[in-house]
Amino acid sequence: MGAASLLLCLSVALPLLLGADECQVIRVLTEASSTKQPFAFNCTSPLLTSGKARVTWYRRLSKVPVSTDSQARIHQEQSWLVFLPVAWGDSGTYRCIVNDTDMCRQVHVNLTVFEKYECGMSRNSQMNFPDGHEQILHVGKNDSLTCHLNFPKSCVLDSVKWYKLVRQFTAGKGRAPLERGSYACEASLTHAGRQFTVSRRIAVNVTENVGYEGRIPKITYPINNTIEAQLGSTLTVNCTITDSRDNTNLRCWRVGSTWVDVYYQESKRVQEGNETHVAFKEHAVYTVGITFLEVKMEDYGHPFTCHAGVSAAYFMLKPPAPDGRAYLIGGLLAITGAAALVLCVSSRFRIDIVLWYRSAFHSAGTIADGKLYDAYVLYPKPPRDCRSSDVDTLVLRALPEVLERQCGYKLFIFGRDEFPGQESQHIKQSWRDDV
Ligand SMILES: *[C@@H]1O[C@H](CO)[C@@H](O)[C@H](O)[C@H]1NC(C)=O
Ligand SMILES: *[C@@H]1O[C@H](CO)[C@@H](O)[C@H](O)[C@H]1NC(C)=O
Ligand SMILES: *[C@@H]1O[C@H](CO)[C@@H](O)[C@H](O)[C@H]1NC(C)=O
Ligand SMILES: *[C@@H]1O[C@H](CO)[C@@H](O)[C@H](O)[C@H]1NC(C)=O
Ligand SMILES: *[C@@H]1O[C@H](CO)[C@@H](O)[C@H](O)[C@H]1NC(C)=O
Ligand SMILES: *[C@@H]1O[C@H](CO)[C@@H](O)[C@H](O)[C@H]1NC(C)=O
Ligand SMILES: *[C@@H]1O[C@H](CO)[C@@H](O)[C@H](O)[C@H]1NC(C)=O
Ligand SMILES: *[C@@H]1O[C@H](CO)[C@@H](O)[C@H](O)[C@H]1NC(C)=O
Predict the structure, then answer these.
(1) Chain centre to alpha carbon of residue 337
(2) Residue of 404, 384, 401, 405 whose CA lies nearest to 393
(3) Is 200 exposed, middle or buried (0-12, 13-18, 19+ CB in 10 A)?
(4) Is the CB of 308 under 6 A from ligand 8?
(5) Cβ distance 201 to 173 under 8 Å?
(6) Ligand 6 contact, 238 CB (< 6 A)
(7) Which residue ranges does UniProt annotate as crossing the membrane (predicted)?
(8) Which atom from ligand 1 is nearest to the alpha carbon of 11?
(9) Which domains does the chain possess?
(10) In contact, 283 and 247? CB cutoff 8 Å
(11) Atom 4 of ligand 5 has which residue's CA nearest to it?
């Protein structure tokens, strides 16, 4: 393993524009492997979760699918593309076509095959380490390195060994104690009766910072909340995810268990946006938007879920609540208006109301305001011994006849209703109006 083996460094431009087929390219990934190494790639796509999707691997623009014969050096196994092992000429683009019910998507993998140098690698340099991984470990924490061995279940992996530079370090279940530098893990892989050796390199950096430790992606938004949206409006909601930098988690928006782009494949009314990310030292913050070109009634109360690896969080839409202040002001205006109307009516028709009340309840006595009479009739009183004048006739006969009998008023008529010494009291307490 010490000598430089034969190597390749190839790259083939992706036929992004040449892909004259109808399948939309949804992801372009870059992978690297050393020659003579077993290598496998899983066509992971949110589409695969539907279960109905058929995955077919093609090499470059070939129309002939990759063989499914498990004895073939390059073959397809379920959604995996397996190289047992990688050879010089394998560099290039591989297309994984996901053919779902009337929907077709493709993932492109840009594979670069490198020459493998066992010695003389500069430390911690990913450039000289194309097929390696980098892992950051924290001082004072229990941590372990992971040997990145991703193969389909048909590949049996065992006896993982760890090396530091040249020396053998420890054996264990794919994990090893830590020390800064370059490590390699090696495992034996058995597939269909044939045995291979897989090795992976890991650049280890050690930090004293207690950085992002979570291996589970954290969705900071949405938070299973409800968002107000006007019917017919355009709306974009971002899903914000914090995850480790080297994660391989898929991030997407789903309706139920269906990817939004598939759910709305006809109308394209709701679409997933492009993923953006901001990388920090040990973690990255990803943003994936979901855009409603037009909010419709059917969107209300329906959960739209953002998925990031094993994590999920949703939001729901609801129609905007009517403006609370408008209600308050309207209510106050209505109450004020009603009060003003009541005041106006009661002052204008005070007498009529009293009369109506009296006729309605046959109340002959005092009513609420304690007054006995409706009006006090003042007239010039002739001397006691004189004969009744025309005034007396008017006041004592005509007025009571019309006002009291016909109209229902109660009059206090001086000279008819007073008792000696009671005038002033009556005058004070009794009338509502003068006549
Ligand atoms: C494929 O990978 C090679 C080497 O990493 C790179 O030069 C090339 O630009 C990549 N092609 C695309 C389309 O990403
Ligand atoms: C790899 O592909 C299989 C189907 O062959 C799928 O069930 C599995 O979830 C995939 N693995 C990952 C890590 O996505
Ligand atoms: C997808 O599958 C349908 C039948 O299931 C087939 O007619 C069509 O050609 C396939 N498309 C691709 C690109 O493989
Ligand atoms: C390792 O960590 C040191 C200090 O934390 C940093 O300066 C250096 O760039 C890191 N190396 C790599 C390869 O990340
Ligand atoms: C590390 O693991 C040991 C035992 O495995 C335990 O006693 C110790 O508390 C752990 N330390 C930390 C920081 O988790
Ligand atoms: C969503 O995220 C993108 C990219 O980070 C940003 O440009 C955009 O303003 C965000 N939109 C909303 C509605 O927050
Ligand atoms: C996503 O990116 C593609 C090109 O990379 C661009 O054509 C498309 O408009 C972008 N979509 C959004 C929603 O920004
Ligand atoms: C939101 O709901 C998902 C299930 O859809 C659940 O897994 C998650 O823990 C919830 N998150 C919060 C913050 O309640």
Answers:
(1) 44
(2) 401
(3) buried
(4) no
(5) no
(6) yes
(7) 326-345
(8) 3
(9) 2-114 (2.60.40.10), 125-207 (2.60.40.10), 218-318 (2.60.40.10), 362-434 (3.40.50.10140)
(10) no
(11) 142
pTM of the model: 0.48
Higher pLDDT, 372 or 25: 25
Query: What number of CA atoms fall less than 13 Å from residue 35's CA on the CB side?
Result: 18
Residue 223 CA: nearest ligand 8 atom is 13
* DSSP code per residue over 19-33: --SSPEEEEEEEEEE
Residue 351 burial (10 A CB sphere; 0-12, 13-18, 19+): middle
Tokens of 424: 């002033």
Query: What's the CA gap between 236 and 183, in Å, rounded?
Result: 45
Task: Please tell me the distance from the alpha carbon of residue 189 to that of residue 198, in angstroms, as a whole number.
Answer: 7
Across the beta sheet with 39-42, what order do the strands follow?
39-42, 80-83, 74-77
Question: Does 222 sit behind a cis peptide bond, omega within 30 degrees of 0 on the bond before it?
Answer: yes
Which residue is listed with tokens 């991984």?
133
**Cα atoms found within 13 Å of the Cα of residue 402, Cβ hemisphere only:** 5
Closest ligand 3 atom to 104 CA: 13
pLDDT at 123 over 70: no
Structure tokens at 278: 């901001």
CB atoms within 10 A of CB 86: 23
Q: How far is the CA of 307 from the centre of ligand 3 (A)?
A: 28
pLDDT reported for residue 420: 52
Lowest-confidence pick of 76-85, 276-285, 316-325: 316-325
DSSP-based three-state secondary structure for 342: helix
pLDDT of residue 228: 94
Residue pLDDT, tens place only, 60-115 = 888 899 999 988 999 999 889 999 988 888 999 999 888 777 677 788 888 888 87
